[in-house]
Amino acid sequence: QTALNLKQRIKQCDKFILLATNKAIASKWCNWELGYGDAQKFKEHIALFPLKPKGVNDSDYKGTEYMKIYPYITYFNGTETYRDGKPITRGYYIRTMMQDGRYCIEPLDKWLQKR
After folding, report:
1. Percent of the chain having pLDDT more than 90?
2. By CB neighbour count within 10 A (0-12 exposed, 13-18 middle, 19+ buried), where does 115 fall?
3. Are the C-beta atoms of residues 56 and 64 closer than 8 Å to each other?
4. CA angle at residue 112 from 105 to 81, to 5 degrees?
5. DSSP for 9-65, written as a single string
6. This prediction's pTM
7. pLDDT (tens digit, 9 = 90+) per residue, 50-98?
8. CA dist., res. 23 & res. 29, Å (int)
């Protein structure tokens, strides 16, 4: 019944965001939800929201390299700049890796409004 409820909710939502904590990444349920969400949504409607303890690096998540294919939510504090030197406004963004290996960012509120 839990799986049926999750499937129904994922189908109903416009976006799928996985809160990626250490325990969520290790959970079979969360990996199943991400896989199901991937099958129901286009990649541009899926994002990860990684929450890691201080000092934990991405390399510490061995076995979850597949998660790198998804955009993720990140926070910029206003001190970062775009490639052209213009400042990035403080706030949350969706960060997506492009095919050429570079990253593209979009304000989270704008991404959430897309259908």
Report:
1. 37
2. exposed
3. no
4. 20
5. HHHH-S-EEEEE-HHHHH-HHHHHHHHHHHHHS-GGGEEEEE---TT--GGG-TT-G
6. 0.80
7. 887 776 665 555 556 667 788 989 999 999 999 899 999 999 999 988 8
8. 11
